[in-house]
Amino acid sequence: MRIVIAGAGIGGLTAALSLHAAGFTDVTVHEAARELKPLGVGINLLPHAVRELTELGLADRLAGIGVATAELAYFNRYGTPIWSEPRGLGAGYAWPQYSVHRGRLQLLLLEAVIERLGPGSVRTGSRITGPGGEDLLIGADGINSAVRAHLYPGEGPPPWNGLVLWRGTTYGEPFLTGRSMIMAGDGTQKFVAYPIETGERTLINWIAERPLDGEPPERGNWNRPCDLAEVGRHFAGWRFDWLDVPGIIAGAETAYEYPMVDRDPLPRWTIGKVTLLGDAAHAMYPIGSNGASQAIIDARVLAYALATGDLDAYERLRRPATTALQLSNREMGPEVVMKLAHERAPGGFDDVEQVIPLAERAEIAASYKRTAGFDPASLSERPSWSVTRSTA
Q1: Cβ contacts of residue 161 below 8 Å, gap of 6+?
Q2: Is 0.90 topped by the overall pTM?
Q3: What is the pLDDT of residue 392?
Q4: What is the pLDDT of residues 343-376, one digit of tens each?
Q5: Would residue 190 count as lying in a domain?
Q6: What is the pLDDT of residues 49-69, one digit of tens each?
Q7: Is the pLDDT at 259 greater than 70, yes or no?
């Protein structure tokens, strides 16, 4: 079976590794860029994605480039705690959660693909726009997927919700546990920070978010530089006892602007000998740290479905799950606690229990884990997606 993958991002490269592990030998990844560079900033890999990379034999390499997240904590815009929870091994998972530079993860996966599938398995400067002579074309070419446009030519650009993200990295002092991921905001304006390197110096990945007046300049481009002074102006008063937000913004060498866009859920991913994966299939708002993780899971389930001779199982298992997640992210997912806290106590509060009771906060967090597929008990009990293709 000849398989072509369009896109050498995290999803496409994981698909190549998963298909190879499942016994498929004729797999080629085509990447439109002429050179793969470690672009981007930080992302999070949740335990369900780390499980899949571990089963692909990449646990040690992943541990070498990532920071094991210890805690996720939400605060209002004044830096007052709303909710916090342990993450990864500390939360009872069998697998850690990692904060990692997206480009370093991509190069790690690329290196593994070349080692296992051979140097000719990844072809750069090769843009795939539709099916050719292969038995299966996998569109893993991102939010502006040419393969998706082939299947749905009238769809148009991804819809924008009026918010803009500014993303950067800054060397700074450790905060809270030293491996905490924090989100502070009011449901409209938000600041996120977490370390992606620790040691002699801490490299802090940060995201600042707020409404943007007018039309966004370029949808789906993560690499458009922005004006740090302009970003800092919107967060000038956000100095907490434990984090200096304007100082972190000002300390970045550069930052990037990205309009908050996603894609509407599709009625089908697989048409004929073409299927979609990752952002090409279900681009979602960067809420709950799920984009890369869901692409990794797509790749593993697709390989499992093909190896067991039931391609339709891929879409049956993944499309309803990711559709629910896309819609949940449009409603702010677990980050809705910041919105609720602001609506109920816009001037701040002394006792969060009087604003959002513990049971409500806990259920918001637990519900999102169930929707996204990383409820601890369910994840541990779920059978592996590892499989060897039957040649009988």
Answers
A1: 260, 261, 262, 285, 330
A2: yes
A3: 40
A4: 999 999 999 999 999 999 999 999 999 999 999 9
A5: no
A6: 999 999 999 999 999 999 999
A7: yes
For residues 2-11, average pLDDT: 97
3-state SS track over 20-76: HHCCCCEEEEEECCCCCCCCCCEEEECHHHHHHHHHCCCHHHHHHHCEECCEEEEEC
Per the CB < 8 A criterion, the answer to whether 289 and 175 are in contact is no
Rounded distance, CA 13 to CA 304, Å?
A: 16
Domain that holds residue 318: 3-157+263-381
Angle at 96 between CA 220 and CA 337, to 5 degrees: 60
Is residue 18 a part of any domain in this protein?
A: yes
Instruction: Supply the DSSP string of 272-338, one letter for each residue.
Output: TTEEE-THHHH---S-SS-HHHHHHHHHHHHHHHHHTT-HHHHHHHHHHHHHHHHHHHHTTGGGHHH
Whether 222 is in a domain gets the answer no
Q: Which residues contact 67 (CB under 8 A, 6 or more apart)?
A: 98, 99, 100, 179, 194, 195, 196, 197, 198
- For the chain, what is the domain count? 1
Q: Which amino acid is at 65?
A: I
Instruction: List 86's β-bridge partners, or say none.
Output: 71
**CATH number, domain with residue 293:** 3.50.50.60
Looking up tokens 């040419």, which residue turns up?
Answer: 146
pLDDT in tens, 166-225: 999 999 999 999 999 999 999 899 999 999 999 889 999 999 999 987 666 665 566 778
Give the DSSP H/E element, type plus range, for residue 162: strand 160-172
Tell me if 178 is assigned to some domain. no
Look up residue 5 and give its two tokens: 């993958």
Judging by beta carbons within 10 Å of its beta carbon (0-12, 13-18, 19+), is residue 333 exposed, middle or buried? buried
The C-alpha angle 264, 149, 309, rounded to 5 degrees, equals 85
**Tens of pLDDT along 88-100?**
999 999 999 999 9
pLDDT digits (tens, 9 = 90+) for 199-209: 889 999 999 99
Do the Cβ atoms of 101 and 196 come closer than 8 Å?
yes
Q: What is the mean pLDDT of residues 141-165?
A: 93
